[in-house]
Amino acid sequence: MSDHPQSFWSKYIFSFDHKVIGIQYIVTGFVMAGIGALLSILIRLQIAWPGQPIEFLGKLFPEGMPGGYMMPEFYIALVTMHGTIMVFFFISYVLVSGFGNFLIPLQIGARDMAFPLLNMLSYWVGLVSALVMLGAFFVEGGAAASGWTAYPPLSALESAVPGSGMGQTLWLLSMALFIVSFTMGGLNYVATIFSMRAPGMSMMRMPLTVWSYFVAAILGLLAFPALTAGAVMLLFDRHLGTSFFLPAGLVVGGELVQAGGGSPLLWQHLFWFLGHPEVYVLLLPALGIAFDVLPAFTRKPVFGYRLSVYALIATGALGMIVWGHHMFVSGMSPFSGEYFSIATMLITIPMAIIGVNFLASLWGGRVIFKTPMLFALGVVAFFGTGGLGGLFLGNATADIQLHETYFVVGHFHFMIGGVTLMGTFTAIYFWFPKMFGRYMSEGLGRAHFWFTVAPFYTLFLGQHFLGLQGLTRRYYAWDSYQYVADALPTNVLLSVAAFVLVSGQVLFLGNFVWSIFRGRVAERNPWQATTLEWTTASPAPHGNFGEHIPVVHRWPYEYGIDAGGEDFADQSVAPDRAPVTA
Amino acid sequence: MENVMYGWWLPPDVSTHGHQIDFIINFLHWFMLVLFVGWGVFMAIALVKFRARPGHKADPSGVTSHLSTYMEIGVAVIEVILLVGLSIPTWAEQKSEPPAEDEVGLVVRAVGEQFAWNFHYPGPDGRFGRTDVELVDGGNPLGLDSKDPAAADDITTINQFHFPVGEKVLLYLSSKDVIHSFSLPVMRVKQDAIPGMTVPLWFEATETGSFEVGCAQLCGLGHYRMKGYMTIDTAESFAAWMKEQAELASFEDDYY
Question: 3-state SS of B53-73?
Fold first, then answer.
């Protein structure tokens, strides 16, 4: 399998190799992240200095910012595209598709994914969906401007908002393509994990990273297609005259809309049926990765492996039935509000178990503060902080006051932004040697950690207070409300934090590129870790494992043992060479 | 209460039910603070106490205490008590069981549109006149049918929402075009206005004053300026305002 000659094209571009596809996803995701981050800078400029012209930006965006003054429709397009790009085309690409592809076969001892061709297709369809999304910036009326949630009728009627023309159509097409791409990838994950595990790799010997991808993939497969249907229905409403989401008697801009019989709430249910599980699809891999990285830098087994597996499964299952907590004040039946409050409270139980298992994993260890460990601790810290904010928003009654305020913005940036960002960087710093055969710089890595965590906390903790105060999100000129006028200094501070956060990522980018070519050469198992990917060469060869697939003899957390001078044994070490603890 | 700023915590509360929401939010803050300090201190101690030092080895047995289990149970119990004992009753009272029209002091309709709030008062006869989307035009944003006798004394305003203090107000919320959200932070009221649906909500003010009404759901490029004004009147000043509006309406009728 690894012998036949490969051209540049088949090796690096149209590759079937899961590792190459994973890296393609990661690089694509980081490009998209750069774009999403630039959008956020424009947003923060407008928030901190509302109505102030910035001349050179006027030259860059002659339509969105004529003379440097931001237009309101440009602002909401920025907000819409920032959210969409970061959720679907950054975190999802890098963490779920990128590292999922790279890690699953390596960690379960397979030579590749179950369906390599499907895997390649998944990437290319995904790339097309990203390009279609970006293309929306260049069409008449600009990019979609109905929020990343795209609630109709705003997103259904061209007359409702400027970006609701071609931009919205492209947004919907892109989402449908994204889900097709994700479904191909998710099927592959599940099939691979079920059928390609190495001899001895029982389900309860799988690393928690693999477990988290397994649960996330099933969750995505069950939940995401609902929005494919929704996107197609909305496209029909927009272009073929159907009324799935449009009730009778709409008057938009003085014109009576010819439609009737549809329900705007139906879209919200379809969207959040995808949207909420999506949070867990992104969150769980970050948690799984932290579970695998913590033991390598505490030199002891993870705490409560079995319970963590069950908690991941329970989170996934409950994650399917809590979507309505995004809709407490939407006008759905108030009895649903009570149900969704209770279901949301239930999901805090497995989440709390995961949090406690993280903390208990630290106790009694030998804590080594390398860069991957710092970011893994970041996962723990952000998960704890963001989770506590969820106590408020999961409560329908408290949500009456907090809904659509910056409290929500702060909360979801901690969870879907922060935990996943920390998880992404944990994974990059930890598995970089396995990808490129070199280390990343420790010094730059540590600087990057502090330049990420400090401004992130400032920015999004601060937003919680603005939300309590009553500041509503998605206002182009929030300062037109007199009652929040004293939020200006806070908003300036938060914008500065955002600029530091974004510029801090230059440290990462530089480190990443420099290390690919000039980093210190890494050995096979640089972190003395136990999972199967560390038993093969760095970088891992095509086909992953040389001539023989490893045979698994033990669980993935064999740390803190006495194994002939080593304090660990990888999963393929035979029982007669090191004690088996679980 | 003119030009009031809300400070860095929750805005002032001038509603009869708001203290329940505030209690939940404030209680959760204390609860959260305890949990935050708890795990933060534990994490800090663990990281300092078990930092790698020469000759130091990890102890694979790790945590053996069951304290965490008891704490998780404790947290779950507190959450259940809060949810069942306080949160759901308040929610039910506020959302599931709005008062009947004859139990309240004022019934009013609010209709969102890009980018304004229309208010529709039934007038002295207590009956809303018929509305029809075919009749909507610039001077008649709600499409009120002037041929309907019940419409004769109706009063409509744009972005001006008056109601009397100390009386329950029942408000029927809907929208003409896209989804809006009727947000009265000081009344602890927020409800999406969904086109094609009419959602009842109710509240009662404890103080007079005037405040801003916002839209809390992205509704287009003018979302930020979809701002109304809410004036909580005494019974007398509310009656006077209604009279003034009625005169204004008849003047306009003559004028056109």
Answer: CCCCCCCCCCCCCCHHHHHHH
